[in-house]
Amino acid sequence: RPGLALCAGCGGRIQDPFLLRVSPDLEWHVACLKCAECGQPLDETCTCFLRDGKAYCKRDYSRLFGIKCAQCRAAFSSSDLVMRARDHVYPLECFRCAACGRQLLPGDQFCLRERDLLCRADHGPPPDG
């Protein structure tokens, strides 16, 4: 339907022989579909993610909107193995005692203070014994 569609990027009418359709209702000039953060062209060779009407490359989408480690605040992939403590999420390499640095494993007792994890040795026994 060239000539009838409006580009979601620039708002202009698409008269080119080709257009890119990102979702059922958003069409783009080939030259206008770029990452809103880094400007990388997004085409059939690059994965495209949409948020609030803006297009992002995978790297920037993950960095801006992905789950972040409660300890180091770095983004990580949804396929990474994680540990959870209350509403905090940690990749395995960051699930460590803040005092001694020991890796905490499933089944280990620990205490959560703010975002800091403390192993049993560093937080002591529970108040009621």
Number of helices: 2
| Strand order in the largest sheet | 1-2
Strand content: 15-25%
| Structural class label | mainly beta
Q: What is the distance, rounded to the nearest whole angstrom, between the alpha carbons of the first and last residues? A: 73 Å
What is the molecular shape? rod-shaped
Tell me the CATH superfamily of the largest domain.
Answer: Cysteine Rich Protein
Tell me, rounded to a whole number, the average pLDDT. 84
Order of helices and strands: EEEEHEEEEH
Subcellular location: Nucleus
Pfam families: LIM (PF00412)
Keywords: Developmental protein, LIM domain, Metal-binding, Zinc
InterPro entries: ISL1/2-like, ISL1/2-like_LIM1, Znf_LIM
Can you characterise this structure?
Helices cover about 10% and strands about 25% of the residues. With about 130 residues, the protein is mainly beta. The strands form 4 sheets. The chain has a two-stranded antiparallel ribbon with strand order 1-2. It is rod-shaped, with a radius of gyration of 23 Å.
Could you provide a short overview of the structure?
With 129 residues, the chain is mainly beta.
SSE blueprint:
Elements: E1 20-23, E2 26-28, E3 48-51, E4 54-57, H1 58-65, E5 82-85, E6 88-91, E7 110-113, E8 116-119, H2 120-123
Antiparallel strand pairs: 1-2, 3-4, 5-6, 7-8
Provide the descriptors you would attach to this structure in a database record.
single chain; 129 residues; mainly beta; Cysteine Rich Protein; 2 domains; two-stranded antiparallel sheet; two-stranded antiparallel ribbon; 9% helix; rod-shaped
